[in-house]
Give the backbone structure.
Amino acid sequence: MLSILFEKMKKKSKLRDYKINTPQYEFYKELHKNQTYNYVKTKLKQYSTNSNKKMTMNEVLSMMDKFIDPSDPDVSNENSIHAYQTAERIRKEQPLNLELQVCGIIHDLGKILLNFNEPAWSVVGDTFVVGCEFAKSIIYYDTMKENPDYYNYIYNTKYGVYTPNCGIEKLLLSFGHDEYLYRVLQNNKNHKLSHKYQKIIRYHSFYPWHTGNDYKYFEIPSDNDIKQDVLEFNKFDLYSKEDINFVLTNEIKLYYKNLLANFFPQESIW
Ligand code: FE
Ligand code: FE
């Protein structure tokens, strides 16, 4: 029994192992240099009216066949496979929780931004708060020193532009697929996914908060519930990457095609 547990721990520790002088390192250096408070504000303004294209969730899912996440040391197959793997892990453990399954299949669809000519550092990677001191738990924290905000006398203070206990919702996070998909869901009211699951999507890459336990001084009591939801989801998102023998069958494809058609009966504006 103990040896099985040990093997499991050994296996798990191999995920999210960020070494320096790797493609991930170079990627994060770019991300950390460019994601400033002003950059995020500009992007949020640009995408405040999502108006790139009208597409169904199923269409966007099929477009993920082309994307491989350059920030992720654990995934080298297309993002559509990652979506099915995550959702299938959820379906096995929680067959009745359809919303969580939907969350699993769509959580990374914000990566469609890559099709709208966004650079990868503006789409993928862990997120962090901009406009205040950078959290020490940010991966490759040293590269944050290349971000101009690191030297800004307001942004480099503990609370920066925010106030203590303002609530996680008030914080601006580095821009990427989480925030983008959250806004698509918020701006399109023609679907059945409830706010709880939209928030999981919004914060799923916010590792310095949900796993690093930083930014506690911005939290309000209800933020802890969101954090627990994100951590629960994260298990499926992260550990599904270990399912190396996963086979995408027609049954699986059809199941999610129908599920998405049920939750998103119409096209969304992206
Ligand atoms: Fe993601
Ligand atoms: Fe993911």
